[in-house]
Amino acid sequence: MKVLAVDDDAVMRLAMQGIVTRLGHTCLLANDGREAWQTLQAQKVDVVITDWTMPDMDGIELCHQIRANSSEVGYVYVLMASAHDQADEIRDGMLAGADGYLTKPLCVAQLERNLIAAERVTALHARLGVAHQALADVNRQQADMIAMLGHDARQPLTAIIGYSDANLDGWETVPDPVRRSLVVKVANAARRLDQLIEDVLTMANLDSGVITVRAQAVPVAAAIQEVISCDPTTFQITITGDQEIQVLVDPWHLRQIIANLLGNAVKYGREPIVVLIGEAEARVRIGISDQGEGVPAEFVPDLFKRFSRADTGIATLKSGTGFGLYIVQQLAEINDGKISYAPGDKGGSCFTLELPSPGADLVHPLPALADRPAR
Amino acid sequence: VIPFKEPQAGAIADDSNPRRLEAEVESEFQPAVDLSVLARLIADIGAPEQSLIDAYLVQAERWIADLGIAAQEGDVDSVRRTVHSLGPSCVLIGAQNLADLLTEVERLARLGTNNLGLAVSTATAEYHRVAVTLQIRKESLAQEVSTAMRVS
């Protein structure tokens, strides 16, 4: 710990410096309260041991100063060391802001005991500060997420309301092919909304640790085709590699992973989007690449962190919750897999999902979307 | 060693207390500084004894002078403040008798009695005894060092 000994008595300063140093701490010295306050403003100090009666600024005033400016100097453990040894004087010292009181003449054992307590309390305060900062970060991220979620949910909702109204307004006059196209648009918007809600619920389940994995053999190409058909895009998506490969995974988790990765490729990338399926050493690798800008290099280390969003490049022009890739990583890991990112050879992004291959006896048909387990 | 100047008998008898009288009487038979206390302090703090003695003497000289002036001017607040500052370091270096006399000065200052001047004189005389003891200790330390150098 860094200890600041404040006393106008040179012998006392020498004694405190010797004891504090012998106990393994760093000791700074000040002749009075004002000098001590200057030191506190210039550097972080863990403990102040201050005399009461001093010229210029006394120990009581120093205590008040430290407590009134805690945002500036941080938490400082204050020990008052004084010859004022009456009960009401000690109480006044504590009320002024001291955490402990040492009566003079100084007793080495008493000082040592108080420094042990000080070390414990300052360590707790340091941990509290870190936790407080983390909590503030999470609060800010959650507020951002709620704002983003509202924005992202409103887009498909607006589409649903708009196309439904158009359908109803022209109920008598709109020809069937147009009515059908309006209903298809409503359905697509509803699916995007469903995907968003699915992500939010998945994240809540991941956070609470209640998510379960029901792994089975799933044909990869078929699962990807199904995701594409559920959320049609004008982008060209090509599936290459071995179309027969199966993977051991929870089918709902695979759908969610693929939907997020393809959704990102469509949102932030450019055509052509290529999905390459391969298998080696009992592991299936699914690569999804696009020809967009790619992920800014400085953002790559934070890519899979919760609520992280790049603050440069195309990401700044698109809305997003910032938890899509976090969910992808978490779902991949609980399915004994992993996800990685690398820039594409010709620019763009390339995400590689790696999952275990199933044994031959584990092959099951892909479950229908309507059979999705209830939450 | 400068002999301790005994205060006039009965001079502060009205405000006397058993502890003060004990301190005065014992001062004739006790060393001004208990060197074993000083040795323990040096062992505790690991500082050079000579610099500790110097630090004490420099500030005590000034505070004793301030104390005399404050007592002459009847400034009891200054008397109390100075005594408060000087007392703890006297205990620390082993000058317990001087510390007791300063406590008595503080008590009289609080009461605002006429005998404050005499009490301050008594404490000042005791301080001189302490100062001489510490000077002798310093000389003896210096001699030990020079002997050790000659031997080596």
Descriptive account of the structure:
The complex is a heterodimer of chains A (about 375) and B (about 150). Chain A contains ten helices and twelve strands. The two termini of chain A are about 50 Å apart. With about 375 residues, chain A is α/β, with parallel strands linked by helices. The radius of gyration of chain A is 32 Å and the shape is elongated. The longest helix of chain A is centred in the middle third of the chain and has 62 residues, at about 110-170. The model of chain A is unreliable at about 360-365 (pLDDT under 50). Chain A has helices spanning about 10-20, 35-40, 60-70, 70-75, 85-95, 110-170, 175-210, 220-230, 250-270, 325-335, and strands at about 1-5, 25-30, 45-50, 75-80, 100-105, 215-220, 235-240, 245-250, 275-280, 285-290, 340-345, 350-355. With about 150 residues, chain B is mainly alpha-helical. Helix content of chain B is about 75%, strand content about 0%. Chain B is built from six helices and no strands. In chain B, helix 1 (about 20-25) runs antiparallel to helix 5 and helix 3 (about 50-70) runs antiparallel to helix 4 (about 75-95). The interface of A and B includes residues 10 and 19 of A.
Compile the SSE list and pairings:
The complex is a heterodimer of chains A (375) and B (152).
Chain A: E1 2-6, H1 10-22, E2 26-30, H2 33-42, E3 47-50, H3 59-68, H4 70-73, E4 77-82, H5 87-95, E5 100-103, H6 108-169, H7 176-208, E6 216-219, H8 220-230, E7 237-241, E8 246-249, H9 251-268, E9 273-280, E10 283-289, H10 324-334, E11 338-343, E12 349-356
Parallel strand pairs in A: 1-2, 1-3, 3-4, 4-5, 7-9
Antiparallel strand pairs in A: 6-8, 9-10, 10-12, 11-12
Helix pairs in contact in A: 2-3, 6-7, 8-9, 9-10
Chain B: H1 18-27, H2 35-45, H3 49-72, H4 76-93, H5 96-111, H6 116-151
Helix pairs in contact in B: 1-5, 3-4, 3-6, 4-5, 5-6
